[in-house]
Amino acid sequence: MDCKDLTIGDYVKHNGTIKIVDAVYLCSVSVHDPNEPWGVALSKLVHVDDIEPIKLTEEILMKNGWRKEPITIDGDYADWYGEIPICQEEDEFNYERIELTYAHTLQHLLRLVGVQKEIEL
């Protein structure tokens, strides 16, 4: 990953566990465990090479209120309706030609269009 691709509040994985980004630096990020109470959760500084993005999946979309309407036109297509409309072709998701590969890219898009939604993983 690249630090330039992250913002505060993004979900990432560190050592196989979901974390939330608290701060972004040149080559590292500060993360905390979202399952810990805020007063107890301690931020940890990690090198950007030690974190990985969380792949956006149908399961994540469904957990967050999107509903799928399959389209049977020459392949595996679907429209997802929720906070914003998302198109799917096989395992690739996009919004108006903006590729949504990872959970944090969906988080960025929702923030940009003014949707105040906490993504559930």
Main attributes?
121 residues; mainly beta; 5-stranded antiparallel sheet; 2 helices; 10 strands; 36% strand; elongated
Structure report:
The protein is mainly beta and 121 residues long. It folds into 2 domains: 3-52; 58-112, no CATH class. The chain contains 2 helices and 10 strands. It has helices spanning 58-63, 103-112, and strands at residues 11-14, 17-24, 28-32, 44-47, 51-52, 67-71, 77-81, 86-89, 92-95, 98-99. It has a 5-stranded antiparallel beta sheet. The two termini are 19 Å apart.
Number of domains: 2
Q: Helix count, per DSSP?
A: 2
Query: Which spans have pLDDT < 50 for at least 5 consecutive residues?
Result: none
Class per helix and strand makeup: mainly beta
Summarize this, please?
13% of the residues lie in helices and 36% in strands.
Task: Note the topology.
Layout: E1 11-14, E2 17-24, E3 28-32, E4 44-47, E5 51-52, H1 58-63, E6 67-71, E7 77-81, E8 86-89, E9 92-95, E10 98-99, H2 103-112
Antiparallel strand pairs: 1-2, 1-5, 2-3, 3-4, 6-7, 7-8, 8-9, 9-10
